[in-house]
């Protein structure tokens, strides 16, 4: 069974930094392995839908970001540990949300339905 677990959220002041982690297990269905999956980071603020924020492609070959976080967020992976990380710097109050990671075969941040194996999420709160 595929499972992702997010961690690293918390309360931080505007301008501060946080590092989120996404631990993946069970990504061996049908012969596929961790490096066969893209891992996307999504966020959901109160009263809003789930928004794709960043993604690292299968094998870590490329990364993708929405304009709102470019230059502030950096995503990386460690395939030996089945881990994906996201460094978030220069945080803003509008970054406040529950952050989730999801797995897919391709990085298509605009197509949330392509992602699955969602974790329980981790809360990020940025105070002004």
Describe the protein in words.
The chain has 128 residues and is an all-beta fold. The protein is 0% helix and 46% strand. The protein contains no helices and ten strands. It has a six-stranded mixed sheet with strand order 2-10-9-4-5-6, with no helix packed on it. A four-stranded antiparallel sheet has the order 1-3-8-7, with no helix packed on it. Strand 7 (73-78) and strand 8 (83-88) form a beta hairpin. It starts with a strand and ends with a strand. The model has no long low-confidence stretch (mean pLDDT 91).
Number of helices: 0
**What's the total count of β strands?**
10
Order of the strands making up the biggest sheet: 2-10-9-4-5-6
Q: How many strands, which pairing sense, and closed or not: the largest β-sheet?
A: 6 strands, mixed
Q: Beta-sheet strand percentage?
A: over 45%
Main features:
six-stranded mixed sheet; about 130 residues
Condensed summary:
Helices cover 0% and strands 46% of the residues.
Write the layout of secondary structure elements.
Elements: E1 3-7, E2 10-13, E3 18-25, E4 38-44, E5 51-56, E6 63-65, E7 73-78, E8 83-88, E9 97-104, E10 122-127
